[in-house]
Amino acid sequence: MTMLEFELSERFFSAWGGGEGVALGYGDDAALLDLGPGLAMCLDTLVEGVHFPVDTPADAVGHKALAVNLSDLAAMGAEPGWALLGLTLPDNSAAWVAGFAQGMRALAERTGVALIGGDTTRGPRTITVQLTGCVAPDLALRRSGARVGDEIYVSGYLGDAALGLRLWQAGERAGPAVGRLLRPEPRLALGRALRGLATAGVDVSDGLAADLSHILSASGVGGVLDVERLPLSPALLGRVGRVEAEALALTGGDDYELCFTAPPEAAEVLRKVSEQLALPITRIGRIEGGGALRVLRQGRPIRLDRLGYQHFAGAGGSDEA
Ligand SMILES: [Mg+2]
After folding, report:
1. C-alpha 187 – ligand 1 centre gap (Å)
2. Other beta carbons less than 10 A from residue 276's beta carbon
3. pLDDT of residue 13
């Protein structure tokens, strides 16, 4: 760490204070935590131009760098606690770091995360956050617990962030979809509520079809989705047609909603959780035997591919290209 890097990190990060379990926080060679058992740990890296557009506001980058990690802990049903930050910067712009720190700190304070250490280096702009949280291992939501007969649910709305990226690239800088792209809201309260209720969970970072497939393969089961049930926001339906909205919801990334499975008898509790959190929870399908994900429209299978999806050849239908 050069003197300048040291000054930058001292100036913007050292005063964030401690948190529960922090015996020694930001500033030494390593942080010291004094904890009981049951830690959840994750790490995510964002590279400028790959994971966020080059002209993304610094505070949004700070928010997102932490939010994507919080979303991973939410998907485990874990309580977030402590973050380490690796910051690689192309220049010594204090203004950029100040904006970044402000965006990250606002979310950290709101979610009970203490920043306890980090490193800054020179290079293409890249942000790594390592986040540690707490959850009893037997209560954690794993990908491997889905059982045949479980229902498949998803929180919030899907496809907005993918639309937001498209709009951003076309020059739009505001609006609900762009907001979903820049400032995803990690579903921590839902993850907490799902402990002991859901049988498996994952956060939707790479697109529903891809992320649900992780649950199916880890659980050794198959699944069937009805596209008519996908939760599509008015913001999305207001900008693209129904079929394209469904494609974005199935294959677009960056939504950071939770997809989870639960037995049919959990439906009533989930309805109450949805009400309490003021967050839509939508049943979109069910777990079945086999090992594949089947996606149905009006009972007919449609084929997913990398760019979207279309009907199986010969299965009828003509509106999908
Ligand atoms: Mg994840």
Report:
1. 12
2. 11
3. 81
